[in-house]
Amino acid sequence: MTHRRILITAGSTRRDSTHALLARHVAGRLDELGRSHLLVDLTEHDMPLYHGDLEAEVGVPESAHRLAELIAESGALLIATPEYNGAVTPLLKNTVDWVTRVDIGVLRDTYIGLMAASPGRLGGTRGLAMVRTWFDAMRLVVHDSDLSLPQVGEHIDDVDGSPRFDATTTETIDRFLSGFLTQFDEYCCGRPAG
Ligand SMILES: Cc1cc2nc3c(=O)[nH]c(=O)nc-3n(C[C@H](O)[C@H](O)[C@H](O)COP(=O)(O)O)c2cc1C
Questions:
Q1: What's the whole-number average pLDDT of the chain?
Q2: Rama region for 139: left / alpha / beta (φ>0; ψ in -120 to 50; rest)
């Protein structure tokens, strides 16, 4: 497995989503680091709620095929996802379930990193733990440390009408990314990028 590209996506497609902001921020940092990446907005991969009869009658949606292809052409996947009631979002669960109906193996070699931001003190850690348990059951490769940003509303500033993470949070994200990239490079290619 030699794909260096890193896919980034968010488990929320809400217009003002904090996780979409986090995904965009991470894409920006990867850009600055000269790392191959692709930001994937799940609104462009709209899928109906999974139903076996629907699959039998009309098949797997084209959007799931396209997403599976993007994943297969990448070596890593960074997911920024909220927790809903201490669990995974229906959007993320549904998306992954459809992708596995294209090819259960498509995510198997992908190096996955998990990120969450939350208005609460727990920083979305319960949702992250649930995603990890879920992905472990699928025998996926998940980076050993997650990024969790608690009370994130207090760390977003308005800069010329656009929300931006403050300096402390940016450093926290950078530390996570640095560890993730080191481990990913080792996993994918046994050496640093470049
Ligand atoms: C149905 C629902 C359940 C939620 N449950 C939790 C929760 O368990 N823990 C938490 O920290 N936030 C919870 N939240 C708040 C989300 O963290 C918050 O709305 C967050 O901004 C969602 O992410 P987004 O901005 O990327 O859409 C919940 C929100 C919704 C809509």
A1: 96
A2: left
Contact between residue 77 and residue 110 where contact means Cβ atoms under 8 Å apart: yes
12 lines ligand 1 (CB under 6 A): yes
CB of 120 closer than 6 angstroms to any ligand 1 atom: yes
Asked whether residue 1 carries a pLDDT value surpassing 70, the answer given is no
**Over 90: is that where the pLDDT of 191 sits?**
no
pLDDT tens per residue, range 26-82: 999 999 999 999 999 999 999 999 999 999 999 999 999 999 999 999 999 999 999
Identify the residue whose C-alpha is closest to ligand 1 atom 1. 84
Give backbone dihedrals phi and psi of 164, rounded to 5 degrees, phi first: -140, 145
d(CA 173, CA 148): 9
Residues 6+ away with beta carbon under 8 Å from 107: 71, 77, 96, 99, 100, 138, 140
Does domain 6-189 match CATH 2.40.50.100?
A: no
Tokens of 44: 């462009």
Hey, what are 38's tokens?
């692709």
Whether 2 has a pLDDT exceeding 70, the answer reads no
Rounded Cα distance, 78 and 115, in Å? 7
What percent of the residues of the chain are helix, what percent strand, and what percent coil, each to the nearest 5? 45, 20, 35
| Cβ of 83 less than 6 Å from ligand 1 | yes
Domain ranges of the chain: 6-189
